[in-house]
Structures are given as structure tokens and as C-alpha cells.
């Protein structure tokens, strides 16, 4: 049924079979002008991928997925490190917060060797501090004082 003019000359919504107003047709999602799907520059991600001698070709979809995975990784480790900073009554992340998150969360175990290497460099410069008594709480997904 087409839109029917009401008694005052203005169009009414279409009515369904039961006399109720039909739902408006779905519209395509509108995108915000200038919105990006990735927060990391894809050209930089592609350059990093090309720097690996084992990689010969990488499609645009693969580059995008790698960029998105990197974003999610940074977001996750930053949240865990921020929980550690909050335990120290701070809002600013410091290197020690990242080190504590790497040591406390099993998913970051692959970073432990790199963190130890950076720790040795930092100790030579006298900049490394630890927050004593912090453990990771899997149930709450945050750090707690022990």
C-alpha cells in the first residue's frame, strides 16, 4: 500500500495488514566522514611486514588485519599496565607498569625475555623501580595488592 494522504493533506506512514504503521525501510549505515577503520597507519604496518625477509607478498587485507591485531594488543597491554599504575595510586603509565603487566599476565610471556633485556639496560642507568606486592587477579581482570 502506498503512502496515503491524511485528511489534512500530509502523507501518512504505510499501514501493515493489521492496520498498524509499517516499519520504515532499513537504511544503509552512515559513516562518519574521515573515519578510519584502523588507527595505525597502514603504510607503516606494510613497511614493517616488508622488513621481514621471510615475507614476500602481503595483501591489503592481511596488512589491515595485522594493524587491527596490533591495535588490540596495545590496548590490552595498556589496560593491564594501567591497572598496575592504579595500584601505585597513579594515573600515568610508567615503564615499570608495563614490566609488571608482562610478568603477571601469561599471555605476555613471549615479551619476558625482551623485558629482561631492557631491564638490564635500565638497571645500568639506574632507572628501574618495582611496586612490591602486586599480583594479577584473573577473576577481576586487574591487579590487586597482596
SSE-based structural type: mainly alpha
From the spread of the alpha carbons, the general shape counts as globular
User: Mind telling me the C-alpha Rg?
Assistant: 27 Å
CATH superfamily of the domain at 42-129: Histone, subunit A
Tell me the strand order in the biggest sheet.
1-2
Terminal-residue CA separation: 69 Å
What integer is the average pLDDT? 74
- Main sheet record: 2 strands, antiparallel
Return the CATH topology of the domain at 42-129: Histone, subunit A
Q: Percentage of helical residues?
A: 40-55%
| Poorly predicted runs of 5 or more residues | 1-6, 131-146
Number of helices: 4
| CATH architectural label of the domain at 42-129 | Orthogonal Bundle
Number of strands: 2
Class of the domain at 42-129 in CATH? Mainly Alpha
Strand content: 5-15%
The sequence of SSEs as H and E is: HHHHEE
Protein name: DNA polymerase epsilon subunit 4
Domain Transcription factor CBF/NF-Y/archaeal histone: 39-102
Keywords: DNA-binding, Nucleus
GO molecular function: DNA binding; protein heterodimerization activity
Amino acid at each position: 500500500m502506498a503512502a496515503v494522504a491524511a485528511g489534512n493533506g500530509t502523507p501518512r506512514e504505510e499501514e501493515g495488514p493489521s492496520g498498524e504503521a509499517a516499519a520504515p525501510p532499513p537504511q544503509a549505515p552512515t559513516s562518519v566522514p574521515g573515519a578510519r577503520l584502523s588507527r595505525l597507519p597502514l603504510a607503516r604496518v606494510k613497511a614493517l611486514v616488508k622488513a621481514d625477509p621471510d615475507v614476500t607478498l602481503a595483501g591489503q587485507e592481511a596488512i589491515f588485519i595485522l594493524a587491527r591485531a596490533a591495535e588490540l594488543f596495545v590496548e590490552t597491554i595498556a589496560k593491564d599496565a594501567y591497572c598496575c599504575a592504579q595500584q601505585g595510586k597513579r594515573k600515568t603509565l610508567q615503564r615499570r607498569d608495563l614490566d609488571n603487566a608482562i610478568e603477571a599476565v601469561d599471555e605476555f610471556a613471549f615479551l619476558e625475555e625482551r623485558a629482561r633485556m631492557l631491564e638490564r639496560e635500565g638497571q645500568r642507568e639506574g632507572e628501574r623501580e618495582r611496586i612490591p606486592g602486586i599480583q594479577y587477579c584473573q577473576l577481576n581482570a586487574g591487579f590487586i595488592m597482596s
